[in-house]
Amino acid sequence: WTLSDFEIGKPLGKGKFGQVFLAREKKSNHIVAIKVLFKNQLKQSQAVHQLRREVEIQSHLRHPNILRLYGYFYDQTKVFLILEYAAKGELYKELQKCKYFSEKRSAMYIASIARALIYLHGKHVIHRDIKPENLLLGQQGEIKIADFGWSVHTFNRRQTMCGTLDYLPPEMVESVEHDASVDIWSLGVLCYEFLYGVPPFEAIDHSVTYKRIIEVDLKFPLEPIVSPGAKDLISQILVKDSSQRLPLHKLLKHPWIIQHVD
Ligand SMILES: CC(C)CCNC(=O)Cn1cc(-c2ccc3c(-c4nc5ccccc5[nH]4)n[nH]c3c2)cn1
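Above: query sequence and N15 SMILES. Below: predicted holo structure tokens.
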């Protein structure tokens, strides 16, 4: 591929993800999202090999709820990633607009992400960054996991991670070794945020958020009204001992999921 294969359109996501542009592949008329990364920026953050590894992983992933990476190309100064275009845009904007989602909508999203995580874990890939900002919506409203960091599987991610800590499980907050069950924890945090509009351990101050996560200080507000089934599912996931968290295949069989997801 080269840039001349594409007609470049409007910027998507207003530079939140670096620079991503709507684009049309001229021969096929296929609409894609093209992400532009600057080589010198990558070099500065020693991210070149990491990006290569990420591209290697992502280019082999095929799942309806994981955003496709179709390919990449580069020129003297830039690397271009050819990504799937998600027609209904960013999920976190939708959540801000609705304040919180219905139980049916939340359960459908959680089930889709659980299936994507079963697929990823089956390929020995831990996502480690499941949060609303990394989720997009396809044409039919289906949820798609995307990675907005230029690289998401770096071991030193936590230090480089800016923004919310809300999604970190205790073992990552305490910097002990962690496994795929960190994604299960994040799915529990996501489910809570879909239903209540805020993450469960949110606090003004990072140190308080840390403390609440480590203590699993889980409280369910009185508003909005959330069913006992949903609270039961969240309580089975947000468990400090990572080996005791509800496994993904059991999550898909939980009564609250079955009740809402055909
Ligand atoms: C290291 C590399 C292999 C990881 C590859 N993944 C990424 O670079 C993650 N990434 C995806 C995007 C991205 C951002 C926005 C969109 C969109 C999109 N559709 C929209 C519709 C309306 C409004 C905004 C929209 N953004 N579709 N596909 C996207 C893809 C940005 N970064």
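Strands lie at 6-12, 19-25, 30-38, 69-74, 78-84, 135-137, 143-145.
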